[in-house]
Amino acid sequence: MSAVAVAPAPAIVARAGEVRLRVRLTPKASRDGLGRLERLADDSEVMIAHVRAAPSEGEANAALVALVAKAAGLPKSKVEVVSGHTSRIKVLALSGAAEAIVAALEHCAAAAAPRRSPEADGDTP
User: Fold this and answer.
1) Under 8 Å between Cβ of 9 and 22
2) Average pLDDT value over all residues in the chain
3) Is residue 3 scored above 90 in pLDDT?
């Protein structure tokens, strides 16, 4: 019997009129913000998110919805937590123009990615 290779799940998946976003949420953080894309131990990808809200009574989820909506240029009513309501790993559905949403989310991830110095790449003059 041979093992079947499973492709790693991307954090951002575009569908017709919708984008699914997998995030790893850190509540009670010092700041609100979306971060880089990161690979988990199970080889799935997530976007890192931090919110100042506490994880009680849905406050952290509401803060996450507001944060993602702002980053994607959408009203909060177009962003919904579809799984992981009580987990750190959540999947959100963002309704709207998929290409524009993906571009906005990828821009956030790229802006948050750690910058590599030329010295680290061996490109010092």
Assistant:
1) yes
2) 87
3) no
The CATH H-level (homologous superfamily) assignment of domain 12-113 is YggU-like (3.30.1200.10)
d(CA 108, CA 36) in angstroms, rounded, equals 7
Q: Sign of dihedral through CA atoms 76, 69, 59, 24? A: positive
Residue 37's closest CA among 8, 17, 65?
8
- Mention every residue, 6+ apart, whose C-beta is less than 8 A from residue 104: 71, 72, 73
φ, ψ of residue 18 to 5 degrees: the values are: -155, 150
Give every CB contact of residue 12 below 8 A, 6+ residues apart in sequence.
Answer: 19, 20, 21, 22, 37, 47, 102, 105, 106
The average pLDDT across 54-60 equals 92
